[in-house]
Hints:
Shape: elongated
Radius of gyration: 13 Å
Strand content: under 5%
Amino acid sequence: xxxxxxxxxxxxxxxxxxxxxxxxxxxxxxxxxxxxxxxxxxxxxxxx
Length: 48
C-alpha cells in the first residue's frame, strides 16, 4: 500500500497555459515542482 505525502503529490492548476505552442513546459515554477515530485517518488520507492 502506497503512502503519499505532500512531497509525493502535485496539483497543477491552469496546466494548459503552462506549455508553449510546441508542447514544451514553459513555466519554470511548475518544472521545479515536477522535478521535486520525481525526486520524492524515487526516494519513496528506494527507501523502506
